[in-house]
Amino acid sequence: MTDTQPRAVPPEPTSLHEHAADNLRFIRETMESTGRFTELSGLGYLLIGVSAALAWLVSLLAPEFELAIWFAEFVMATVLGLWFTARKAASAGTTLWTRSARKLLLAFSPPMAAGGLLTFVLYPTGNLALIQGIWLSLYGVSVITGGLFSVSIIPVMGMAFMAAGAIALLWPDTTGWMMLLGFGGLHGLFGLLIWRRYGG
Fold it and tell me: CA angle at residue 111 from 109 to 117, to 5 degrees?
């Protein structure tokens, strides 16, 4: 007797280029999940330092508007940082929405949010020195935690900000100088270091 049942047709082998595409996709996703966001802009940090120094100078000339001046500087610094980092990322063929960039932002944000809340709570007291000492300290914490997902020099900058914040909180008469040293000097110094080591 002859076997009349149809034989199973073996599946067609997957083409080599499909295997390669799957492997590349896996490698890229793995690198993004474990990698660091290295496209922070040294030039952006440098310009943030310059704008902060200008804000400090303006606050000396108009001390009654000091808090508003530093809020405006925060907006300016955010715009500068995002713009130049996005430009550097684009030149490297990536974006600000990679997994490593999102991890950096997620780690950076909670201490900043705490600083905003404490500013709102403490504003009625009129104790600007205390508010600014908290800014320096919590910004340092944000830079350290966010820097864990970036280049190794970033957490060092965060520790320097925390030191400036500690001095401002312990010796309130130094707060103005610590604001200049921190947001102006440290941003400028580390911006130059990042620019030299990792590009603009």
Answer: 100
The per-residue pLDDT for range 16-65, each reduced to its tens digit, is 556 555 555 544 554 444 568 888 999 999 999 999 999 999 999 999 99
The whole-number average pLDDT for the span 64-87 is: 95
Where is pLDDT greater, at 165 or 95? 165
d(CA 56, CA 48): 12
String of DSSP letters for 49-110: HHHHHHHHHHHHH-GGGHHHHHHHHHHHHHHHHHHHHHHHHHHTT--TTSHHHHHHHHHHHH
Q: Which residues contact 144 (CB under 8 A, 6 or more apart)?
A: 154, 155, 158, 159, 162
Helices (H), 128-186: 128-147, 153-170, 175-179
3-state secondary structure of 1: coil
